[in-house]
Design a protein that fits this description.
Length: 151
């Protein structure tokens, strides 16, 4: 999404410099807006910063690794996608239909065409963080897929 355009920093030297200087202060400054976008339309859960690991993202090394992954995904994801058909275990994908980060139709439903044994579940009105805002439903889904995998 355009909201993450600032994370596209192709130069590893520049990523490192940003990670060691302004990345953490800027992350703190924009945290309310970022978290609203990522969690929306639901509110961030009160336990996310500590129990959910949100504060762990406020480390220079985390910024550097995340931005490095963001830059690399354009080159690294297509070879992985090409091998989806080789996956021999049940796969479960869960998406919120109101996810602002990943569109469930593009990033979820399209997987049904690429995987033999995939179950896709959508949670109506839920955003990008169902594991925090609908944990019971996510747990039930994980248990269901695990049950299929370990029969």
């Amino acid at each position: 999404p355009p909201q993450f355009a600032a994370m596209y920093v192709p130069s590893s030297r520049r990523r490192w410099l940003l990670s060691q200087t302004v990345a953490v202060p800027m992350s703190l400054k924009y945290a309310p807006r970022t978290l609203d976008f990522v969690f929306g339309p639901q509110a961030m859960t009160p336990d996310y910063p500590i129990a959910g690991g949100g504060m762990a993202g406020l480390r220079p090394a985390h910024y550097y690794a995340t931005v490095t992954d963001f830059v690399a995904i354009g080159d690294t994801l297509p070879p992985y996608e090409a091998r989806y058909g080789a996956i021999g275990v049940p796969v479960g994908v869960i998406f919120g239909t109101a996810d602002r980060v990943l569109d469930y139709r593009i990033n979820g439903l399209a997987m049904a065409e690429k995987l033999r044994d995939v179950e896709i579940e959508t949670l109506d009105g839920i955003g990008h963080m169902p594991q925090f805002v609908a944990p019971e439903r996510v747990e039930a889904f994980v248990r269901k897929i695990a049950g299929r995998a370990f029969v």
